UniProtKB/TrEMBL annotation:
SUPFAM superfamilies: Bactericidal permeability-increasing protein, BPI. Signal peptide: none annotated. InterPro entries: Bactericidal_perm-incr_a/b_dom, BPI/LBP/Plunc, Lipid-bd_serum_glycop_C. It comes from Cinclus mexicanus (American dipper). Monomer. Homodimer; disulfide-linked. This is Bactericidal permeability-increasing protein.
Length: 186
């Protein structure tokens, strides 16, 4: 049970429970809204690893041998509903996702390369600065679990984990933080 403070002056009071947040996560998950396809042309040029078999050779030499310098695609999706919990200092979330990589052939056919389950833990902290509400997001854990499926080429997971952490730290978390822009202003 929550007790809301008594307001003696005009104010906006917003209360969200874990039930509401987890219901929203369930709705997004059930509706299939937690899916994203990433092609090689979507990555920033400054990203140290492009989605091409030549770049992925570090993780799986078989990719470059079988498909020399072909573009690749990543299909990302939640394989389980995200779980959210509220604490006095922050919002904690567990994300359960999968990433499947494909090699794109010249005729636009996609050949499965590997499938990787990736579980991540994030922490979000709300901030209030001069009548503005915002927040920050921080990656607190990332656990890739390699899975062999349909004879796919499994990459060296430890190297891929390092790259995923770097990519999330360099691009994912800043992008999430930019979306946590101030929502209220005078």
């Amino acid at each position: 049970p929550m007790t809301l403070p008594v307001a003696h002056e005009p104010m906006l009071l917003l209360a969200v429970t874990e039930f509401v947040a987890n219901s929203a996560a369930f709705t997004y998950f059930t509706a299939g809204a937690l899916r994203r396809n990433i092609s090689s042309n979507m990555l920033p040029r400054q990203f140290p690893l492009q989605l091409r078999t030549k770049s992925m050779e570090v993780f799986s030499s078989q990719l470059q041998e079988r498909y020399p310098d072909h573009p690749m695609e990543l299909h990302l999706w939640a394989h389980r509903q995200p779980l959210l919990s509220f604490h006095p200092d922050a919002l904690h979330g567990s994300l359960f996702s999968s990433a499947e990589a494909f090699v794109v052939l010249p005729n636009a056919t996609r050949v499965p390369a590997f499938l990787l389950d990736i579980d991540a833990n994030v922490t979000g902290k709300p901030t209030i600065t001069r009548n503005r509400v915002g927040g920050t997001v921080r990656l607190t854990g990332l656990v890739p679990n390699p899975e062999l499926a349909r004879g796919l080429l499994v990459p060296q997971v430890k190297r891929l984990e390092t790259l995923l952490k770097f990519g999330l730290w360099l691009f994912g978390v800043p992008q999430a933080n930019s979306k946590c822009c101030p929502v209220l202003s005078p």
